[in-house]
Amino acid sequence: MLKIGCHLSSSKGFLHMGKEAVSIGATTLQFFTRNPRGSKAKALDEKDIEAYLAYAKEYGIETIVAHAPYTLNACSADAKVREFAKEAMTDDLRRMEYLPGNVYNFHPGSHVGQGIERGIELIADLLNEILTSDLHTTVLLETMAGKGSEVGSRFEEIAEIISRVECKDKMGVCLDTCHVYDAGYDIKNDLDGVLLEFDRVIGLDRLKAVHVNDTKNPFESHKDRHEKIGEGYLGLEALYQVVHHPLLQGLPFCLETPNELPGYAAEIKMLR
């Protein structure tokens, strides 16, 4: 069964998210672990989580993607910013233990003038501080577009971070279609070649989730602006090929396009 869904609001709880997902034909979902522009996380409602888990089992919602706030910066030049990222991510992983067997995705961060090497070092250091062997969650580094001083727009940078992490079995990657195309990986005209490169540099066994987004900007633009499916430079055919590629089957595909629920329902239908 194709695992496809979209980003949903968690403001009304997990069971509500599950019901929204089913209402639009989704079999997975993504949510922010806390306010994406701030630090606040809702208090956990264990009864709601139990109800969601039962509902998800009944309706076939499988691996879901928790997304860290995109404002976190694990490789900031400011030690206080890095400490905040560590505290938030540690708390998120603690909370994810109530939903075992899922994935937690984060943007590696921006080195803000320190250089890629220093950025990689700081991200790996943070991961080594927060990852433990008893976690039931896989932490994903998201592929980035290379905007500004972002770390993670090249597969080699992702691979280097993972190589420095002690609990490697807790690490994976989320490939974002908009980001990789904007970064210079031509998934529109050479998807097979890009996946071969990913496998050579990182290993396809590390790929645990895919963000399915069209892009408002042309190839290798390093911009990172998502577009609705079929309305951007990637187009529907290229994204359909991603979702149905034999090497990617079984992964959760999550839409992050500028949509409301009816738009997501239409995109899921298009991509099935």
Short overview:
This protein has 272 residues and is α/β, with parallel strands linked by helices. It is 38% helix and 15% strand.
List the helices and strands and how they pair.
Elements: E1 4-7, H1 14-23, E2 28-32, H2 46-59, E3 65-67, H3 79-96, E4 103-106, H4 116-130, E5 138-142, H5 155-163, E6 171-176, H6 177-183, H7 191-201, E7 207-212, E8 214-215, E9 226-227, H8 235-243, E10 253-255, H9 261-271
Parallel strand pairs: 1-2, 1-10, 2-3, 3-4, 4-5, 5-6, 6-7, 7-10
Antiparallel strand pairs: 8-9
Helix pairs in contact: 1-2, 3-4, 4-5
SSE run: EHEHEHEHEHEHHEEEHEH
Strand order, biggest sheet? 1-2-3-4-5-6-7-10
Q: What is the fold named in CATH at topology level?
A: TIM Barrel
CATH architecture label name? Alpha-Beta Barrel
Percentage of residues assigned to helices:
25-40%
